[in-house]
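I hope you will forgive my troubling you with a question about protein structure. Could you please explain, in whatever detail you think fit, how the structure tokens follow from the sequence? Thank you for your consideration; the sequence and its tokens are set out here.
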Amino acid sequence: MLDAIVVGGGPNGLAAGVTFAKAGHSVEIWEANDTIGGACRTGDLVGLGCRHDLGAAVQPLALASPFFRSLELGSHGLAWAIPDISAVHPLDDGRAGVAYRSLDETAQRLGIDGDRYRNMLRPLVADSQGLLDFALRPQRSIPTAPATALRFAGRAPLPASWLARRFRTDEARGLLAGHAAHAILPLGRPLTSSFALLFAVTSHGDGWPIPIGGAQAITDALASAFTSFGGSVRLGARIDDLGDLPKSRVVVLALTPRQIDRIAGGALSGRYRRALRRFRYGPGALKVDYVLDGPVPWTSVEARRASTVHVGGCFEDVAQAEHDVAAGRIPERPFVLVSEPTLFDPGRGIGGRSVVWAYTHAPRGCDVDFSSRIDDQIERFAPGFKDRIVGRHVTRPSQLEASNANLVGGDVGGGSYAGRQILFRPAVRWNPYSTSNQQIYVGSASTTPGAGVHGMSGMLAATTARTHLETK
């Protein structure tokens, strides 16, 4: 009998598997698709020989993650490009908010807001590892850096719109808007400042790295580490019920509540199943992968060497776009995240062509191709962009779910962060990774700390399950 089976082979499933195998437990990962990695993969989506990421192209939380820090993935082939500029937020008049890895250099560009921005973030950036170690764990955890955690907790509950009122320049307010919009919530919602602060801290700490070779390199390195510790993978192993699995002492489900209820519901209490059914999913994402005949011609010089460009205009423009999405409307001027990996990893292009990744938030399950609005938004800040397009591939929210059942309605966040779900995922429990059954655990983005390639949900689920294994 195996000690553990992990269902789902995305980054969190791999993290769970690594955690078991590294501790000496026998473990097998079951993945429904023919390839491991979930959305953390890379391929020729446009058909021109270039390499595009199926999911996120930039990983702001990877280097800060305690899970990733616990492994030497460089020995498994993983290398990172870490740009000196993490994010740029261009404005209509040619100005831009620029998040350099250097906090001081960033503040110098913010004029009258420079000192306020520096003073707000310096204590958090100075102990960014302590802050991220706290933020990427359940809120019941005792912080290793209590003073830093308290500073963060003093502002994190605020709506991002309130935090932005402390600043007068469009550059500073734009940076905050772009960071806060990662919450995929209206910027007037409570706790959206927590996203603004965390993404700001990572932008000035470890930076926003891009994996050399694309997101596939992360999956390949994790899979290599997993098998080196003795783990095994079963591909094309779609299950409809826990009874389809061989016997094991514990099971970790790297799935969302909808799949957990369907597959494992018969082994769970009625109360826990009702909690799963109350779980709310968030908006979807529409993604466009481009091939250009040259770099994106951003008006902002700094944007031409940034890891990520937040395209949306002033704070009010971004807030309106996110409000529209939450109301089920397609924004006229969507907030768009853009990255050009070939600036730092030219091998992903062919013949000097540029690979560009862009995505925006959309109503959940949307089947409308409104990618022309993404084109228009990029053209707004990079005149001549459309003329450089050689090829493109559009993925609508409905298509995201069709390719990966965990992306319900195209929700790349593993569930909405509205209300209590920003703190308690997938149910209100002392330990979010446990269920009503001591043999079943949950380790996906639908648990704390949520979305992102950080592996913490999988690691913490496996750590919880190990407690059961090692005390029985």
Summary: The chain is about 35% helix and 15% strand. Residues 2-41+211-280+410-471 form a domain with the FAD/NAD(P)-binding domain fold (CATH 3.50.50.60). The two ends are 15 Å apart (CA to CA). The longest strand covers residues 284-292.
